[in-house]
Amino acid sequence: MYYDTDCGGVVHNLAYLRWVEECRTKMAPHIGIDYVTLARQDCHLVLVSHEVQYKSPAFMADEMKILGWVEKVEKSCFYCRFQIRRAEDNRLCVTVRQRLALVQMPKGRPQRIPAEWYACQAPAEDLLDD
Question: What architecture (CATH level 2) is domain 2-128?
Answer without folding.
Answer: Roll (3.10)
